[in-house]
Amino acid sequence: MNRTVLQIPISTAVRKKAELEAHSQGFSSLQEIIRMFLSKLAAKKIEVAFQEPVQLSAKAARRYDKMTEEIESGKVKLHEAKDVDDLMRQLNS
């Protein structure tokens, strides 16, 4: 099998964080996860999409913070369903 070495300049901090994450996900090394990713990419088994994170407006952030506070304080009662039938009974009542 022909092999080549891929050199990618990255900061030491990024490499260390990536290595820790690779190990936490069960990979033996950062190289292993990169080889797996590139193999799947080359075989068209995965697609890569870069998506900007959603940034809430200040008004929406305040609204969701208020909702969270009301739920955590018990001011708003949440309903729990045991199964799908229970959920449907609650929705239809």
Can you tell me about this structure?
The chain is mostly helical. It has two domains: 1-47; 58-92, no CATH class. It is 55% helix and 0% strand. It is built from four helices and no strands. It has helices spanning 12-24, 30-42, 58-73, 84-92. The termini are far apart. The relative contact order is 0.05.
Brief rundown of the structure:
The chain has 93 residues and is mostly helical.
Keywords:
single chain; 4 helices
Counted up, domains total 2
What does the overall shape look like? elongated
Estimated helix fraction: 40-55%
Q: Give the termini distance in whole angstroms.
A: 66 Å
Percent of residues in beta strands: under 5%
The SSE string, one letter per element, is HHHH
Structural class: mainly alpha
Q: Low-confidence stretches at least 5 residues in length (pLDDT < 50)?
A: none
Biggest β-sheet: count, sense, barrel?
none
The average pLDDT score comes to 93
Q: What's the helix count? A: 4
Q: How many β-strand stretches?
A: 0
- Rounded to an integer in angstroms, the radius of gyration calculated over CA atoms is 23 Å
SSE layout:
Layout: H1 12-24, H2 30-42, H3 58-73, H4 84-92
